[in-house]
């Protein structure tokens, strides 16, 4: 799947294009939550850096980069998904060899978030003072796994979450069922890879029904106990339930304000929701997005999180009814 159209519209792409005109930075950290397509994203930026036509995709350089077979670009890791100290040693040693075809050499490191601390420390000096005409491109799903000393030596590029509409448009050829795709896109955390995985998830419709039931029928504190128990029966999927609820609240808000609705079918499921004016919807959406972030935390307490989220929705209704 070619994500070039989506990536070409990102601010990260604009930054690299501008840097090519004024002088490329010696090391970049590309942050992309989509681990499934992280290596493909790095190839897109490798082409952008090394192709004279800003990553045209058709020239010899681009074709060789796509196969990871261009003489002046080295991709790591060679095997597996973890960068080892041996990989870093090979990178450092090779960086002193002059480019063979162009005026620069590029080192692409995928999965930098999996790099152990000794390997990161080994790379520090080269990140700070690489040999002339060397560019290092690190790719990670998050910056937190990297040492502060590594992060301080690179220029950070971020791939933002894609909209549900963008994801659905990009995946429609390989995910032909429009209703399933709309739901998968809504729960895909802004990434193509996650949405593609969820497209064939048989449990997703049940999770959607639970989220819709909460939106429509949770109207008092007595309901919190009931729905908290249902959420905890699906505690491994809390992030997906929050993502579904976020998409429902977004569409409800768009409809209330006369904006564009992403999934009209989903709105039919929550037609009976009461006491959700625009203010309550904005409040519920903010709290649900916060719940998504908390759910991804390493030490999240599922029981406390579920109850906090449910009470927050009720609180929003109460505040905006006044």
- Shape, principal axes of CA atoms: elongated
CATH top level assignment of the largest domain: Alpha Beta
Q: What is the rounded Rg?
A: 23 Å
Number of strand elements: 5
What is the CATH topology of the largest domain? Rossmann fold
Number of helices: 16
**CATH architecture designation of the largest domain:** 3-Layer(aba) Sandwich
Beta content: 5-15%
> Quick check: average pLDDT?
90
Q: What is the N-to-C order of secondary-structure elements (H for helix, E for strand)?
A: HHEHHEHEHEHEHHHHHHHHH
Q: Summarize the main sheet.
A: 5 strands, parallel
What's the N-to-C terminus distance?
50 Å
Flag low-confidence runs. Answer: none
Strand order of the largest sheet: 2-3-4-1-5
**CATH homologous superfamily classification of the largest domain:** P-loop containing nucleotide triphosphate hydrolases
Derived from helix and strand composition plus strand pairing, the structural class reads alpha/beta
Helix percent reads 55-70%
Query: What is the number of domains?
Result: 2
How are the SSEs ordered, and which strands pair?
Layout: H1 4-8, H2 11-22, E1 27-31, H3 38-50, H4 60-66, E2 73-76, H5 85-94, E3 105-109, H6 117-128, E4 134-140, H7 148-151, E5 155-158, H8 164-171, H9 178-186, H10 192-199, H11 204-217, H12 221-233, H13 238-256, H14 264-269, H15 278-295, H16 302-321
Parallel strand pairs: 1-4, 1-5, 2-3, 3-4
Helix pairs in contact: 3-4, 5-6, 8-9, 9-10, 11-13, 12-16, 13-15, 15-16
